[in-house]
Structure prediction request, 748 residues.
Amino acid sequence: MQSTGRHGIIATLDPGRNRIKREAALSLRRDSQEPMAHRITTSCPAALLALGAGAFILPAGAQTESGQGESSGTPSIVVTATRSERNSFDLPVSIDRIDADAIREGKPMINLSETLSRVPGVVVQNRQNYSQDLQISSRGFGSRAQFGVRGVRLYADGIPATSPDGQGQTSNFDLGSAERIEVMRGPFSTLYGNASGGVIQVFTENGPPEPTLTQSGAAGSYGTSRSALKFGGQSGALNYIGGASHLETTGYRDHSAAEKDLGNAKLKLALSDDTRLALILNSVRQPAQDPAGLNRAQVEQNPRQVDPSVILFNTRKSVVQNQLGTTVEHRLSASDSLRFAAYGGSRQVEQFLAIPIAAQTPSPTSSGGVVNLDRFYYGLDLRWSRATDLAGQPFAFAVGSDYDNQKERRRGYINRFGTNLGELKRDEDDTVRSAALYAQGDWKFAPRWSASAGLRHTEVSFYSSDYYIATGNPDDSGNIKFTNTSPAAGLIYEVDPSLNLYGNVGKGFETPTFTELAYQKNNATGLNFALQPSTSVNTELGAKARLPGGQRLTFAVFHIDTKNEIVVDTATGGRNTFKNASRTTRNGAEWSWSARAFDSLDLLVAASFINARYRDDFTTVPGPPPQQPITVSAGSYVPGVPRRTFYGEARWSPVGHSFSTAFELRYSDRIYTSDANTDRAAPYSVVNWRIVFEQRASDWRVSEFVRIENLFDKNYVGSVIIGDTNQRFFEPAPRRNAIVGINAVSRF
Prediction:
């Protein structure tokens, strides 16, 4: 069972006879005696950076307060790495926790891209296109996604936002009620199954002790506005929080207007001293125009324009999603507990694409230019956890099983210039299922040594029932199943209470998505069941340090070998086909440093380097006929992966004054747009500035903010579309723009 502790952190109710829980509590108390730069504990910088900043750091033992009134010594508790509450400092993994103040302070709370740049190794590209979602990659995994998120597992309150085939989306993440975001990279991510090159989890906050109403609003450039209400509290055994928001924007580029209505609620009920129930409800409606990409000449001429085909076919996408999840946690004894989770939902999508009529109509295997999806999904997870001793030393483990099922009715129609649906061109039921068994344990086998290990066995099955049968297009029904066993193991050594060294290794896999299975080259009929999963071996070495004055540093180097990388085979007729072609290798380093200086200045630096390259030659056809195959040479860079990224923030919050201000610097290296490395988006640096004012009384709090993005009016490409059929790779980012907002909190 769990309760909320003094710092708002989940704590275990019955620590009496459990040595591991006692040890965790001691670790928390040890952490809370030291100040730290608030909001995030991440990976570390080089020694020169620490030395350069050392003159500005508070003396050891000094106590500070963050701009949000929380203790800066709050320990970083995470659950993603081990599926139980642990201090991230004591885990042999790269994992970061971003707390609510970093998510919300001086931000419009619209997209994860506002916050995830703080995490080294994670690249988030805001496409300025609400019909295609964000591009998110972790150590290069997921960089190939042309839409949505793949290669990175997404969760909201334990409910997968990634489907069993590995394709995910972030549209239902409610940042306005998020208590924290946890981001894990490296080998232990593989214990979440298919396409888990990294894991991102968003957790909804609990309701406050008193009934509290929060009203917020923001308005800014390009017709952007967001309004939201949130209400929460505690009534006897029931804790509740719920909110709703509405977003509108005309968009930076032409034909990029969007709306978004989002609702999110969480109810927690203590059924007894040993049993707790939670319900999570989520709903989103998001119609959006699709400005698509531009070629280089179009970007240079006018980055706000769209290709004429976008207007001709009125490209757009509409999404409606509703889901419900529940968890039951039951304590069997002081050492044993059970957790059962179930969820279900529906998602309807209609998307109009800019595919020439000549490519839609004559070919019997064409799916047309309108995608119509009607999806139902559900899943279950049962886990038993035990905390005990092994050889006289603390040992905790969890054993569980999960099952995810997604069934989708997919239809395709001719897009007759965006006004109505033309003839039916595709009609099928697609089902993908994932079933897994997993086990994970942690053992402190010596005073300074701890080990973590896990094993997951996963089966992913694809089924397709074809109902569109015509001349030249026979019954394309079929099925295929992929099986994988993924181990991961890590060690951590405590050099002293302020320095931990660790290493880990793990194996992972990534199946093709239904989108990648959808077509075969040369207009052959049927799904591309020749595609196989890519597999990877991931190793990592790192260090985590707490230095005098509340400085936090961690550092990690990694090496990843991948076999059967899924790459573009052909790109023609508005669609891509895929194949397994090459081995890849990714070598890199991540580091971050955070500290508080002068009793009022919070500093954060997060940087990463990754060298992601193909190890074998392979061929690809990058465009429509008469385009000939070209050879991608071994040593070419994996597209979509910037070699260097950097984020820096300096936040000043003077003691005794009710305001804060911050500058943010974000840098991204060049990004190649195709496997052949024939074109690329240039490197860029962007500076953002924000200022926040706050007024308080006994029962209310009001804050206002002004935020200016791209302060120095940089002209740059913010994201790229990998391997686009028409060579329209580039999605320009906005020039200088501003947003202002207000947030009012009232207690009753």
Observations:
- The longest strand covers residues 421-446.
- Confidence is low (pLDDT under 50) at residues 1-73.
